[in-house]
Amino acid sequence: MGKGFFQVPVAVNEPVRSYAPGSPERESVLKQYKEFYNSTVDVPLYIGSEEIRTGNTRTMSPPHDHKHVVGTYHLAEKNHVEKAISTALEAREKWANLSWEQRAAIFLKAADLIAGPYRDKMNASTMIAQSKNIHQAEIDAACEIIDFLRFNVEYMTQIYSDQPVSDDGIWNRVEYRPLEGFVYAITPFNFTAIAGNLPTSAAMMGNVVVWKPSDHQIFSAKVIVDVLKEAGLPDGVINVVYGDPVMITDTLLDSPDFAGIHFTGSTEVFKGLWKKIGNNIDRYKTYPRIVGETGGKDFIIAHPSSNAKQVATAITRGAFEFQGQKCSAASRVYLPKSLAQEVLDFVKKDIESFKMGSPENMENFITAVIHEGSFDKLAGFIDRAKADKEAEVFAGGNYDKSKGYFVQPTVIVTTDPQYVTMTTELFGPVVTVYVYEDQKWSETLKLVDNTSEYGLTGAVFSADRYTIEEATKALQNSAGNFYINDKPTGAVVGQQPFGGARASGTNDKAGSMQNLLRWVSPRLIKETFVSPTDYRYPFLG
Ligand code: NAD
């Protein structure tokens, strides 16, 4: 603390720009897109002040044009990962002891840089690296990351100001210490904002970090590094490595100074990390914090009283935006028989109106899925549904990877509520619908609750308040983010803290105070002003 109880600027959500035809922002981001697209960048490892080029490189290509190369990145060897650990630990003392307001200023400045001079770079790199249309890029790589940075600064001050009461003659104080060691941040491909948030939220609370981005997000991860450097983040606070995830992880988790993991990605990978941490538990100086947000099999259930067009729009947006590659994307839908055909016909019409292709053409609502592995997996499930007698491909069902990894948004209708695509996370533009008998509403709620191992997001549509309450209770543990008459995607920092339980994660709610609390270890300091001089209590006489 400096010399004052400083108040940080009140956080407000960054307004989403429209990019409508003729708008200056549209022209500006397309210019940046072209600039990135028609040049190449060489992305080094960032360890301390050093930019390390190992010479062992991989190329980076847009998913919508996979033969086109936009750059290379360098793979770390074990010694680089070890160097990242020692560099982080060397930076720790100074960083952990820096006044909180200086830390806050760095991240507030980063938010302003992204809102201003870096906005086009953040968006264009995300359009290229992850094949997002401009709206999906803007709500992620600009607005959400800005919100994370600004709101987290505010939450940090709320945490610091949470202090115990003090009795007469004493003063109780709590200081929120950074963890004793380093934090390992592992980020997924699908949100540039998550890539930015996982290392910075821990760093904001005074921790040092080793960050491993996804191989499929490195192009936009580099822009985040550029922003943090310009914002004045001291060298060594966040160190960035890429390469073999198993080698990198094993090296980091073997360190006695490993103090916490901040992960977002698939359930299987997270479970593997947890097991490794468990096996290594005797090595560590402190019990590591384990924070992971993982997969989902997110549902929409419509009551017979709901509005068919509203349900259809929630499916169209909730299942297909960003090609369904959101952990929150609707992927299993329960429709009452009396409404099903109407809803399905609306969704089919929407799909037929979609344009699909490069995000550079802003008429395209749908762009490509992230990589060939994902494309092949999705094509396999679509083919299986075409062949299986308990499933029907009602809409979509085409795919083509000749230029980019394009999968047409697809609706499967199944007669089996346990059909493979009702239970497995596909992470693509494929949604499966099960039609239930209207009178089986309450039974269907149980089905929704029991069908999946996940518990991330879900939505109920109904015009009947009694059934809304019934669903809210019956599905209490089915989703960490539960939506009434709205799609299950699109959580906004500061408004809908995000995360789920069961196989969906530790539910530490990204973009909330709960998350930041995982990156501190409180120390209580009790001071007595006039210390006792006699051990005898009055009852002893
Ligand atoms: P992923 O699990 O394949 O990869 C995530 C990260 O883990 C990447 O950095 C990857 O390189 C790394 N990784 C992969 N294998 C590893 C291993 N064996 N050891 C250590 N690290 C390893 O996930 P993805 O494809 O990048 O992202 C999609 C997944 O993320 C989906 O399951 C989605 O539901 C989930 N997700 C969840 C949330 C949430 O908030 N719950 C948000 C976004 C994404």
What does this protein look like?
With 541 residues, the protein is an alpha/beta fold. It has 2 domains: 25-294 and 505-525, Aldehyde Dehydrogenase, Chain A, domain 1 (3-Layer(aba) Sandwich); 298-484, Aldehyde Dehydrogenase, Chain A, domain 2 (3-Layer(aba) Sandwich), CATH 3.40.309.10. 40% of the residues lie in helices and 20% in strands. The chain is built from 16 helices and 23 strands. It has helices at 24-37, 78-97, 100-115, 119-130, 134-161, 192-204, 218-231, 245-253, 267-279, 308-320, 337-353, 372-387, 420-423, 441-451, 465-474, 513-517; strands spanning 41-43, 45-47, 50-52, 57-60, 71-74, 170-178, 182-186, 208-212, 238-240, 258-264, 289-293, 298-302, 330-336, 391-395, 399-400, 406-407, 410-414, 430-436, 454-455, 457-461, 481-484, 501-502, 520-528. The strands form 7 sheets. Strands 14-17-18-13-12-20-21 form a 7-stranded mixed β-sheet, with helices on both faces. A 5-stranded parallel β-sheet has the order 9-8-7-10-11, sandwiched between helices. Strand 12, helix 10 and strand 13 (330-336) form a beta-alpha-beta unit. Helix 3 (100-115) packs antiparallel against helix 5, helix 3 (100-115) crosses helix 7 and helix 4 packs antiparallel against helix 7. The longest helix is centred in the first third of the chain and has 28 residues, at 134-161. The chain is globular. The chain starts with 23 loop residues before the first helix and ends in a 13-residue tail after the last strand. The site of nicotinamide-adenine-dinucleotide has 30 residues, from helix 8 and helix 9.
